[in-house]
Specification:
Layout lengths: L7 E11 L8 E5 L2 E12 L2 E9 L12 E10 L5 E12 L3 E7 L9 E11 L2 E4 L2 E4 L2 E11 L5 E13 L8
Antiparallel strand pairs: 1-12, 2-3, 3-8, 4-7, 4-11, 5-6, 5-8, 9-10, 11-12
């Protein structure tokens, strides 16, 4: 899979674990060179916090290629139509081994009941890096998780995870 702006190979995996035992499939889409991970909706109670955790596990380059770097945006959605952005957008640039988190306490959902339903969309954007052999798409292996936990005790109630990989296709990526 390639484009003139960012040539990249793409590998994606998605899994969901909710306690006790429950499985569901999320939706993964691609627009131009970005990857969108849409995790399944999850209920959030007044006593809970939802949190997305992301890390870049792409290995360092072997022969002077582009260093691993992921462009990541995390958005929480909710409301009656499920399209209202909740809290703030979380934007990260993750180098190899970096970990970042984006929490959403129930209080920031604007809900008035004892619980509400939220969903999360994670956008992974390739980043072009200048190298001796020209611009390359930085390798990115994003591992992410969404968890809900009791805000007072920290006990996890639900957990879901997803992964996406962007790898340079060949030695160079062409830029417009």
């Amino acid at each position: 899979m390639s484009s003139r702006t960012n040539a990249a190979a793409l590998t994606i995996g998605l899994s969901l674990f909710v306690f006790p035992s429950f499985a569901q499939t999320g939706v993964i889409t691609r627009s131009n060179s970005e990857i969108f991970l849409h995790l399944p909706p999850v209920g959030l109670a007044v006593s809970e916090t939802a949190q997305v955790n992301v890390t870049n596990t792409a290995p360092p380059p072997a022969n002077g290629g582009a260093a691993p770097l992921c462009g990541v945006t995390v958005v929480f959605y909710g409301g009656r139509d499920g399209q209202t952005i909740l809290g703030n957008l979380a934007v990260f640039q993750l180098r190899n081994g970096d970990v970042a988190s984006a929490p959403l306490p129930y209080a920031l959902t604007g809900a008035s009941g004892a619980r509400t339903v939220i969903r999360v969309a994670i956008t992974v954007s390739p980043i072009l890096i200048s190298t001796d052999s020209g611009p390359q798409t930085a390798p990115c292996t994003l591992l992410s998780s969404l968890e809900t936990f009791d805000s007072a005790t920290g006990v996890t109630h639900a957990f879901t995870s997803a992964s996406a990989t962007l790898k340079p296709a060949g030695a160079n990526a062409s830029a417009r």
